[in-house]
Amino acid sequence: MNMDLRSFLGEARQLGPEYFVSISKPVDPVLETCVIQQKLAAEGRYPAIRMENIKGAELPLATSILGSYSLLGLALGVDPGEPKSAILQRFRDRAAKPLEPQSVPRDKAPVKQVVLTGDDIDLAKLPIVHHAEQDSGKYITVGVLILRDPDSGVLNAGMYRHEVKGKDKLGCMFNPAHHAGYIYRRCQELNKRMEAVLFIGHHPAALIGALGEGSIDSCELDLMGGLMGEALAVTDAETVDLPVPAFAEIVIEGYLDPAEETADGPFAEFTGYYGPAKEDIGLMHITAMTMRSDAIYHDLDPAHQEHNLANALSLESAVYDSVRRLVPSITAAYVPVSGSCRFITYVSIKKSVAGQGKSAGLAAITANPNLKIAVVVDDDIDIYDEQRILWAIATTFEADQDLVIIPGAMGSHLNPSSYGEIRTQHGPMNTKMVIDATRPATLPFEERIRPPKDIWDRINLADYID
Question: Which residues, at least 6 apart from 452, have a Cβ–Cβ distance to it below 8 Å?
Answer without folding.
Answer: none
